[in-house]
Amino acid sequence: MKKTLPALCLTALFLLSGCGGGGAASHGGKSVPAVQSALESGVAAAEAVEPLAGAAASGAGAVAAGEAAPPPSAGEAADVDLTQLNATMIFSQVSRMLSEPEQFVGKTVRMAGRFALAFGYGEDGEPNPEQVYFACVIPDAAACCASGIEFELAGDYRYPDDYPDEGDEITVTGVFETYEEYGLEYCRLADAVMGA
Amino acid sequence: MSKLSLYLQYPFVQYALIVGTLIALCSSLLGVTLVLKRFSFIGDGLSHVAFGAMAVAGVLRLSDDMALVLPVTVLCAVLLLRVGQNAKIQGDASVAMISVGALAFGYLLMNLFPTSSNVSGDVCSTLFGSTSILTLSLRDVWLCSVLSAVSVGAFAFFYNKIFAVTFDESFARAAGTNAGLYNLLVAVMIAVIIVLAMNLVGSLLISALVIFPALSAMRVFRSFRAVTVCSAVLSVCCALAGMLAAIAASTPVGATIVAADMAAFAAFSAAGALRRR
After folding, report:
1. Residue B54 CB contacts under 8 Å (≥ 6 apart), including other chains
2. Fewer CB within 10 Å: N-end or C-end of chain B?
3. Complex ipTM value
């Protein structure tokens, strides 16, 4: 009886608890790959998470809260420089940015990847050529677990004249922000510039 | 090395190392029991059940899929481990049946009712654990830590009973041990650890995390205690090495950890062969 009761309590504890997460799969459309996902994954989950003590503010990935930054230039040092990370780290960092956007709003982000675009849908459910979304997508080796962030260039740019071809390698620097559209919150790099 | 030390400053890398180490420790402890009871593939089966349950949870748009995944996986673990011996369909066949059935059902559901526009990416990440362990939140870390601590504590507290039930269940019953209850406890612990381990290595590779450390230890050691301790140490070392290598070299985390386990198995097999000469 002495050890039976603890065993039963343990069993009940296991059944009543659970470990969340599950990574990319449970983030579902909030993480990764192709254009649609990269753009849909901008739907931010407003989870308030305390940063782990010891998270360093290095030149290649500062995560501390900061004030809103002015529009960046292409050569300016970024608060979050994804060009210094490998594909695995980029995927994880972008996942974190999209799941905890409040930690990154106002920060200058630089990323390099492939140019991608997607069209919005009108009320009739058909693609709307006037509503275009642009993203920088970074695929992994298997090209199934890519990640990316939408961006909006500063200035007056017109598609397709002022944009590269889909799939071209680009480097984008912009200010991370969230915005709301059709009742959902999305993330993007605003006032972005393309360049080295 | 400078790159790796830079990466180690990221919170999600620290979370991954903490949770990965705990998961590896828990899975290795239960792995010894599973290997000795000839239920090595139950990890595979239960992970596929969890995959199927995750697909159902996605279709039902549950905010926390663990509310469905964990109970379903625990139930299947209990059915497989407690009923298998007296069932019309014996242990390995029942595991295989449930395993492939759940996997196929889950993939079918995810294609019929996709929760994102990149089903293949979600499936790939869940099945192979390419980067799942690197996308945990602080809440996930705490929950995993608590469950892992309880699992390790339970294993240590009930070590003698688990030992008896593992090696000779009939004798344990005859000696007055409530073997059914301890089998239930082991089944529940296995299910919980399997669900946790899916974050680390994915559904398809969980068996490696459970089996390889135990088998490697058995190449060299003979006593249950020595095998258990060696298995735990080996599993933690291989998990850490695999995660660090995957982060540094940008390889899939799950597959890299399994590769480290395989290398350790080869090394221990060679050491065991040399020792026997």
Report:
1. A22, A25, A26, B65, B68, B69, B106, B126
2. C
3. 0.77
Q: Mutation test of the interface with chain A: which of B135, B183, B193, choosing the one with the most A Cβ atoms within 10 A?
A: B135
Residues in chain A with pLDDT values less than 70: 1-76, 140-146, 196
Identity of the residue in B71, B140, B253 whose CB atom sits nearest the CB atom of A15: B71
Q: Per the CB < 8 Å rule, is B253 touching A88? A: yes
The answer to whether residues B212 and B8 touch, using CB atoms and an 8 Å cutoff, is no
CB atoms A21 and B140 under 8 Å:
yes
- Token couple for A66: 């900061």
Q: Among candidates A110, A86, A106, which has minimal Cα distance to B6?
A: A86
Contact B125 A23 (CB under 8 A): yes
Is the CA virtual torsion B132, B134, B135, B141 positive or negative? positive
Question: Does residue B277 have a pLDDT over 80?
Answer: no
Please report, rounded to a whole number, the percentage of residues in chain B having pLDDT higher than 70: 91
Question: Which of A36, A37, A95 is nearest residue B135 as measured by Cβ atoms?
Answer: A95
CA B167 – CA B229 distance, rounded (Å): 17
Q: To 5 degrees, how large is the angle CA B269–CA B214–CA B97?
A: 115
Please answer whether residues B253 and B205 qualify as being in contact, where contact means their C-beta atoms are separated by less than 8 angstroms. no
Establish if A99 touches chain B: CB-CB under 8 angstroms: yes
Q: Considering only the beta carbons, identify the residue of A86, A87, A96 that sits closest to B12.
A: A96
